[in-house]
Amino acid sequence: MAAHPAAAPDDCRSRLLSAAYAAFLAEGYRASVDRIAARAGVAKQTLYNHFPSKAELFAAAIHVAMEEMMASLGDAGRHLDLRERLIDFGVRYRAKLLAPAGIGCYRAMVAEAPHFPELAATFYRSGPEQTAARLAATLEMAMQRGELRREDPEFAANLLLSMLVGHELYPILFSGKPPAEPDSDAADRIVDCFLRALAPENPSFKRKAP
Amino acid sequence: MAAHPAAAPDDCRSRLLSAAYAAFLAEGYRASVDRIAARAGVAKQTLYNHFPSKAELFAAAIHVAMEEMMASLGDAGRHLDLRERLIDFGVRYRAKLLAPAGIGCYRAMVAEAPHFPELAATFYRSGPEQTAARLAATLEMAMQRGELRREDPEFAANLLLSMLVGHELYPILFSGKPPAEPDSDAADRIVDCFLRALAPENPSFKRKAP
DNA sequence: ATGCAAGTAGACTGCGCAGTCCATTCACTT
DNA sequence: AAGTGAATGGACTGCGCAGTCTACTTGCAT
Question: How far out from the chain centre does Cα A22 lie?
Fold first, then answer.
């Protein structure tokens, strides 16, 4: 009967993507294609003109989320102190992972990883693994400069990432609390703990006195 | 027609529970009641004689998993050194959480928390929250004895728990690797890092020399 | 013996949902 | 003016699954 004026030439796909993004992060893979199409203001058939199946739509939405997560995680300016660089990174890392989008993405991926093995592997490689690798490189350089004790850089990077976002996840995941924390000093405290844990063994190189 | 000799008087329920436990931890809430009943060697109607709905069966199975997880996490003997107690705890904590059952339980709960809010809250309170509270009490006592620096005990407990099981979860969750690590020394290294991070500020109380 | 509690097989209902089909309508090109 | 490509709504198929119903069987207690 009445066909809307063909809504838009090509942003149709982007509307679908953002609707799928929102729906999958909020409801997980349960989100139905009918609801996603409706949310995008688009007919179901149009959805299937752009994506061959629900699984591919899901993968596309997760890729969007991945890019969004990794976007602002590059290393900060070189002119900063190690401590300041780690804090800067820590604040951004926590902001990304603890925000609703990060939580939703994590929840969806944890739930569906067994059913989408290659998507999960991609997610892992371009997310946590890459982040850890970059951080490990930064830490290794600091070790070579004598600012940190000699230690396996991978181990150290995993340790810091764990400290930054670990046990705190549980109340958010399991008792629907939004983060609700201004949180500006958590990264500070954590990074200071990390630096003490990896302080050089030889106390002759003292860090700058307060 | 032929009815099995009424299999067993009451272990019927326990067979259902363990089948549900296995199925839900392996497949999540997707696991169908038909398959669970079949796996238990029991008719579907029998399942519904014991559990009013799939949701309640799921809750019962998760409670079993919870009890199993918390069973062996009590504090170790008082005669141990702080470091030894933390390592002992760390080894058990890691063993529980990183084992397939722990991963399955975590995956199922993360995925279904939004659909079972009160079950998720119970899980949180009797799992992560209780663990953190006990550990915080232990750490607070150590702080009062001067073995650790004065610090918010909750923060310190969360920190140690995060360090023990944090970033390591990702490869297991997202790239179907079984833990595969003998792992006996990971807890040692982590606890040593933690103790350095929270070493007393006043260096007059030295820890026992090696 | 009789009756009750509990189990069994299997058919059946109803629902939600992925994916398809179709007749129609619009926008844009030539 | 005609044609092509894309979008539309809505009906339709098929599947898997939660939960119910029925008719039957068994063990135990009295």
Answer: 16
SS3 track for B87-104 = HHHHHHHHHHHHCHHHHH
> Which amino acid makes up residue A75?
D
Quick one: which of B146, B139, B118, B11 has its CA closest to B55?
A: B118
Name which of B25, B162, B190, B191 to mutate to probe chain A: the one with the most chain A Cβ atoms within 10 A of its Cβ.
B162
Strand ranges for B82-173 from DSSP E:
none
Q: Left (φ > 0), alpha (ψ -120 to 50) or beta: where does B47 sit?
A: alpha
Alpha-carbon distance A109 to A120, whole Å?
Answer: 7
Residue B82 burial by Cβ neighbours in a 10 Å radius (0-12, 13-18, 19+)? middle
pLDDT tens track for A7-54: 455 789 999 999 999 999 999 999 999 999 999 999 999 999 999 999
Q: How far is the first Cα of chain A from the last one, in angstroms, to the nearest whole number? A: 75
Please give the Cα distance from B42 to B22 (Å, whole number).
15
Q: Which of B109, B110, B130 to mutate to probe the A interface, most A CBs <10 Å?
A: B110
Tell me how many degrees the CA angle A73-A74-A80 measures, rounded to the nearest 5: 110
Q: Is A180 left (phi over 0), alpha (psi -120 to 50) or beta?
A: left
Q: Could you give the 3-state DSSP secondary structure of residue B200?
A: coil
∠ CA A192-B164-A90, nearest 5°, is 35
* Nearest chain B CA: its distance from A192 CA (Å): 8
And the tokens for B76?
């170790």
Interface size between A and B, measured as CB pairs under 8 A: 130
Q: Which nucleotides of C are covered by protein (CB under 7 A)?
A: 6-11, 16-22, 24-28
CA distances from B204 to B145, B146, B167, B201, B208 (A): 14, 10, 35, 9, 12
Q: Tokens 């991978």 identify what position?
A: A154
pLDDT tens track for A122-155: 999 999 999 999 999 999 999 999 999 999 999 9
Look at the pTM and tell me if it is higher than 0.85: yes
State the DSSP code for A76: -
